[in-house]
Specification:
- This protein is α/β, with parallel strands linked by helices and 121 residues long.
- It is built from two helices and eight strands.
- Strands 1-4-3-2 form a four-stranded mixed sheet, covered by helices on one side. Strands 5-8-7-6 form a four-stranded mixed sheet.
- Strand 2 and strand 3 form a beta hairpin.
- The longest helix is centred in the N-terminal third of the chain and has 14 residues.
């Protein structure tokens, strides 16, 4: 149902370091790069980061990125922390969302919330 998601960021290079690290850990890569935008995916652009010259709002919601298991959730969370992100909930089971739901939460360099999840319904 969703074709792609775009996140507006304040500093494209700074945010790219964060998303490069997190998405590389999940098996995605840059599939487009321009002066004001970078897109990630496996075969097509699914997640865009875009610099429009305005500061993003921190409370817009969150983006959930699918991981191929708990090890991948842990790796992506650690990669995000190492690339300028901050912890917003360490990886672990989230039984409130289902018996196999395992997720970790990050804040990107602009404070936007990024969830990395495995085992969602």
């Amino acid at each position: 149902m969703i074709d792609h998601v775009g996140l507006e960021v304040a500093d494209l290079a700074r945010s790219a370091r964060f998303y490069d690290a997190v998405l590389r850990a999940l098996g995605a890569r840059r599939v487009h790069e321009g002066e004001a935008a970078i897109a990630y995916g496996r075969a097509q652009a699914v997640l865009w980061i875009v610099a429009r010259g305005e500061a993003p709002a921190q409370s817009f919601g969150h983006v959930a990125l699918r991981a191929a298991g708990r090890v991948a959730v842990d790796a992506a969370h650690a990669a995000g922390l190492g690339a300028g992100g901050s912890d917003d909930g360490p990886p672990g089971p989230r039984p409130l969302y289902g018996p196999t739901y395992y997720a970790g939460y990050l804040r990107d360099p602009d404070g936007l919330r990024v969830e990395v999840v495995s085992g969602s319904a």
